[in-house]
């Protein structure tokens, strides 16, 4: 998968002192995936995959990139859009 197929279709910045800085929707080969999060962690900004809360109260990812390279491309695209 090349970079041209990954586009951030929407970014919503979150104001305030929260570690959560933004939500993003990504268009991936013609499919829009909603719910990526930009989080300010102990090592700086990172992108969290979309997730949902289970009945047990724990959070579970709903999107799993097939390769490490794809995860890095998704993260780079979202962080670039956030910083613009």
Key words describing this protein structure:
Arylsulfatase, C-terminal domain, single chain, 1 helix, alpha+beta, 4-stranded antiparallel sheet, globular, two-stranded antiparallel sheet, 84 residues
Describe the structure.
By secondary structure, the protein is an alpha+beta fold. The chain has a single domain, classed as Arylsulfatase, C-terminal domain (2-Layer Sandwich), CATH 3.30.1120. It has one helix spanning 68-83; strands at 6-13, 20-28, 31-41, 44-48, 51-53, 59-61. The strands form 2 sheets. Strands 1-2-3-4 form a 4-stranded antiparallel sheet, covered by helices on one side. The chain has a two-stranded antiparallel ribbon with strand order 5-6. A hairpin with a 2-residue loop joins β3 and β4 (44-48). The two termini are 24 Å apart. The model has no long low-confidence stretch (mean pLDDT 90).
Q: How many distinct beta strands?
A: 6
Strand content: over 45%
Structural class: alpha+beta
Helix content: 10-25%
Question: How would you describe the shape?
Answer: globular
One letter per element, helices H and strands E, the order comes to EEEEEEH
Radius of gyration: 13 Å
For the record, give the distance between the C-alpha atoms at the N and C termini, rounded to a whole number.
24 Å
CATH topology: Arylsulfatase, C-terminal domain
Number of helices: 1
Low-confidence segments, given as residue ranges, are none
The CATH homology group name: Stage V sporulation protein G
Enumerate the strands of the largest sheet in spatial order, edge to edge or round the barrel. 1-2-3-4
Quaternary assembly: single chain
CATH C-level name: Alpha Beta
CATH architecture: 2-Layer Sandwich
Tally of separate domains: 1
Mean pLDDT comes to 90
Question: Largest beta sheet, briefly?
Answer: 4 strands, antiparallel
């Amino acid at each position: 998968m090349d970079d041209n197929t990954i586009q951030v279709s929407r970014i919503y910045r979150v104001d305030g002192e929260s570690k959560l800085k933004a939500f993003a929707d990504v268009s991936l080969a013609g499919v829009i995936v909603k719910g990526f999060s930009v989080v300010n962690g102990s090592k700086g900004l990172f992108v969290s995959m979309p997730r949902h809360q289970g009945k047990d109260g724990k959070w579970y990812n709903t999107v799993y990139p097939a390769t490490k390279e794809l995860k890095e491309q998704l993260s780079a695209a979202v962080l670039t859009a956030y910083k613009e």
